[in-house]
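Input sequence (118 aa), recorded before submission:
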Amino acid sequence: MTVPADAGFTLIETLVAMAVLAIAATGLVRATEGHVDLIGGLERRVAGGWAADNALTETRVGLAPPPTILLGRAWSPAVVARGSDDPDIAAVTVTATSGGTSASRHGFRDSVALAAPQ
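Predicted structure, token format:
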């Protein structure tokens, strides 16, 4: 069996096919990069929510929430307490920040000093 001389791809056809594959591969890498960035942002928001939840719980029991480290990031809580319609209850907003990420939680706590255990 003999192979005709014009069988196969020309150099131009091969280069066009390689260019199409390179463009497709670049698109795949960019899509993967975007997905990784999205997951990183989600991780930061979840860790901030946990830090704010923890700080709100500490505030409710009468403790000043300290800075904390969650998922390798240092979170600094800020507590803002306001009065409410009930003089015995204070509205509390806790915001945990780390770098450019912040998360807030809102709740209530006793506005009177907690009685010392006897």
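Checked by second reader. Residues 11-110 form a domain with the Pantoate--beta-alanine Ligase; Chain: A,domain 2 fold (CATH 3.30.1300).
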